[in-house]
Amino acid sequence: MNDEKVQAVTLAPKLSIPLTEGIALYGKVGGAYVDYGSKDDYSYLGAAGLEFNTNHNVTMRLEYQNLTDINNDIVRARAETATLGIAYKFGGSEEPAPVVEQRPAEPAPVAAPVEKVAVTKTFTFQHLDSSTFATASAELKPATVQKLDKIVGYLNQYPQAKVEVVGHTDSTGSEAYNQKLSERRAQAVAKALEAQGIDASRISAKGLGESSPIASNATAEGREKNRRVELVIPEFQYQVTE
């Protein structure tokens, strides 16, 4: 057998696993057509090796290969080889990777600032007449609450607004009594506004007694006009967007 010449044609896929940037471990598994003496045979092939990439064109390989089951009808044998090879690839030098120009990112568009303008707002005062309260009483009549809807809606629409509640009386009775009565009536209206959701910090209440009549106290009609509660919203500013 040692005097016989063995020739083989192999077909085996190669699988490489990189170990470092220039070194890879590879293996091959396949088959071979073997010419052994006067006989031809087929054999399994297995190989493993290391591949060294010295530069772009030159590769070195250190490989161990095994051919199994070589049969010439007299003996069954196998062939083992260890080889060191050099492969040269013809071609130009390795081209450097193209440089991608990094363009600075365009800044996101900046929205134009929203301009806010201060606007002055005024409100014509509302007054509750003598029918709002029972005679000599600071208790609001049930129907009076509905009379407050307009000013409550306004205060809800403009949170910047505040309201002043001012109580007045006619000249019937003593001045001190009228002063106290006007204060109690102003407080009653202020409480009614709070009950409808207006914060107490936005409400001020005071009484002026008989000191600010709008009609003559000499007549019943005039005295009726003087018995009133005024609701005044002072001038205020709020922001609008243009």
From TrEMBL:
Subcellular location(s) per record: Cell outer membrane
**GO molecular function per UniProt:** porin activity
**Matching Pfam families, A to Z?**
OmpA (PF00691), OmpA_membrane (PF01389)
Entry keyword set: Cell outer membrane, Ion transport, Membrane, Porin, Transmembrane, Transmembrane beta strand, Transport
**Which InterPro entries does the record match to this protein?**
Bact_OuterMem_StrucFunc, OMP/PagP_B-barrel, OMP_bac, OmpA-like, OMPA-like_CS, OmpA-like_sf, OmpA-like_TM_dom
Coiled-coil positions are none
Where the record annotates domain OmpA-like, the positions are 121-237
Q: Which GO terms describe its cellular component?
A: cell outer membrane; pore complex
UniProt record, GO biological process: monoatomic ion transport
The membrane topology of this protein is:
Multi-pass membrane protein
Signal peptide position in this chain?
none
- Top-level division of the source organism's lineage: Bacteria
The similarity comment for this entry is: Belongs to the outer membrane OOP (TC 1.B.6) superfamily. OmpA family.
Q: What is this protein called?
A: Outer membrane protein OmpA
Q: Which organism is it from?
A: Vibrio cholerae
